[in-house]
Amino acid sequence: MSLRHTSFLLLLFPFLAAGAQDFHQSNTDESKVPPYTLPDVLKMPDGKEVHTAAQWQHTQRPYVFHLFEENVYGKFPRTPVSMRSKVMSTDEHALNGTAIRKLVDIYFNNDTSAVIHLLMYLPRTPRPAPVFLGMNFFGNQCVSNDPAIPITEKYTINGSGVVNNHVTVASRGSQAERWQVDTLLAHGFGLVTFFYGDVEEDYPEGWKQGFRTKLRTALKTAPEEWSAIGAWAWALSRVMDYLQTDPRVNARQVCLNGHSRLGKTALWAGAADPRFAIVISNESGEGGAALARRWYGETMPIINDHFPHWFNSQYKQYSTHINDMPVDQHMLLALIAPRPLYVASAEGDQWSDPKGEFLSAWHAGVVYKLFGEKAIGSDQYPAVHQPVGDWVRYHVRAGKHDVTIYDWQQYIAFAERFFPRKGAKKQSSKD
Prior knowledge:
Blueprint: H1 3-12, H2 53-73, E1 83-93, H3 94-97, E2 99-108, E3 111-123, E4 129-136, E5 162-163, E6 166-167, H4 176-179, H5 181-186, E7 190-195, H6 211-214, H7 216-219, H8 228-243, E8 249-259, H9 261-272, E9 278-282, H10 300-306, H11 313-317, H12 329-334, E10 341-346, H13 354-370, E11 388-389, E12 392-397, H14 405-418
Parallel strand pairs: 4-7, 4-8, 8-9, 9-10, 10-12
Antiparallel strand pairs: 1-2, 2-3, 3-7, 5-6, 11-12
Helix pairs in contact: 8-9
């Protein structure tokens, strides 16, 4: 739905704008979605409109980013913090000789308890490899059944191989289908991952033993000034710092990806750190790619009630006043511009509002156009398994809330287009 069409409907049916919908209740009936008006991502604080890429980069982008810091995710710390890395082990013939496996620990501020445990699988190639970087939900051991990968002792959300919020040996390889390491390696890509609970355990009090507390002095940022998503996103940037020092990695070709709450995190990290060459959101839903003002699936008050630690305190104030929020999620996606962006949904995951994710990606296209790049050409929702778009790309697949081989096939093809191999024909964004 376009901004113009939405505003016209509001003039005809003003009662719909008065909050006839109850955002404390979930809705999955498209016919009941009322009109809404989105903030104009190109309107500057003085009321003038952005017309050039330079205006966006130097004036509007910093303004929009600050709005998200103030109103959604909290402060993104920029204070330099001391880091050191230690390679714990390297296997040059991992996965039956197809990969190099590295286990790397990253320590912060001389605090050995503030540590990220990286798992890296890299192709055995002479050149630095492009990589996909993303956090995992259950510890590195869930990515592969390799017995050399340590099992996390941190609190985890419940799932396969998890008993009372702690993983067991049965969790080894439990998420292998979501990561498709063999497929990535076959296409010349590496995988870099770590457990998001290394940074902050995922429950309302998790901040007390996490980085927001341990590094508050070093970062000059109080725990309440940011959020769990903010801390996870900040950690992704610090992993990027490390990747720039690893000679086996092409740090200019890092695809940042995330699923669900970690998709929200990937978008925020991608907005905050332009070093991520490509950003991918897999079913990130409310607080991620989906439009907050669309009454469909999970809503702002619902997510704030169930996961109060994910966002900052100001975000919770909008639960009953959503239209007062100065941003919506298309503006977050626009912060990725002009870098390639992929947004993906699943037909069976109505909770994440697939159409709201699509429309958000479509609305973000106005900023990509400032840079002369094509985004998504039409606001017509695409059919299942029919990806659309160019520098901004979208698909909805069959199935549930998950990451599947189909998703990975699209992401790999997307990355291959922007990361051509030596000797390959470079593909234009206009192709």
